[in-house]
Amino acid sequence: MTQAKKGDTVKVHYTGKLDSGEVFDTSSGRDPLEFTVGANQVIPGFEEAVVGMAPGQSASTTIPVDSAYGPRRDDMVLMLGREMFPADMELEVGHVLQLRTESGEQFQAMVIELGEEKVTLDANHPLAGKDLTFDIELVEIK
Question: Which pLDDT tens digit goes with each residue over 68-101?
Fold first, then answer.
């Protein structure tokens, strides 16, 4: 029986849950997720969970913070002056903005607080600092 290994392109169905049991993502009702094992296309713990699985096999795995999106970092919370944003830009708490560093690198940050003079943004991944549980079914090895 063929088992998934580094370098294989695989298709999986998955459901991702938080410790509370809340589902944060699933492929249910969609095409399976396709990725190449070892190509860093998914979080490290997800890749590791698929290695050794055979088509048709299912597994449940809990991925700790360090093998998921990493710990929350305080240095990823930014406070910028309102003058940094276009005057006609509507800012609301919860909006996700596309930003660019001085070197041209793009990243996303969520508006978490609006003050009269300052806007506070959080550039941490929304799942940073969380252990994640995935139910995974290996559909195919290509």
Answer: 999 999 999 999 999 998 889 989 999 999 988 8
- 96/108 same-domain check: yes
Is residue 1 one of the residues assigned to a domain? no
Helices (H), the chain: 44-50
Strand-pairing partners, residue 137, are 13, 58
Number of C-beta neighbours around residue 1 at 10 A: 6
Q: Are residues 17 and 59 in the same domain?
A: yes
Which two structure tokens, joined as six digits, stand for 40? Answer: 């860093």
Determine the distance from the C-alpha atom of residue 110 to the mean position of all C-alpha atoms in its chain, rounded to a whole number: 14
The tokens describing 37, both together, are: 């094992």
- Which tokens in the block code for residue 5? 């290994």
- Please state, in angstroms and as integers, the Cα–Cα distance from residue 91 to each residue in 80, 95, 96, 117, following that order: 13, 7, 10, 13
Q: How far is 60 from 12, CA to CA, in rounded Å?
A: 13
Q: Distance (Å, rounded) from C-alpha 122 to C-alpha 130?
A: 16
pLDDT of residue 22: 96
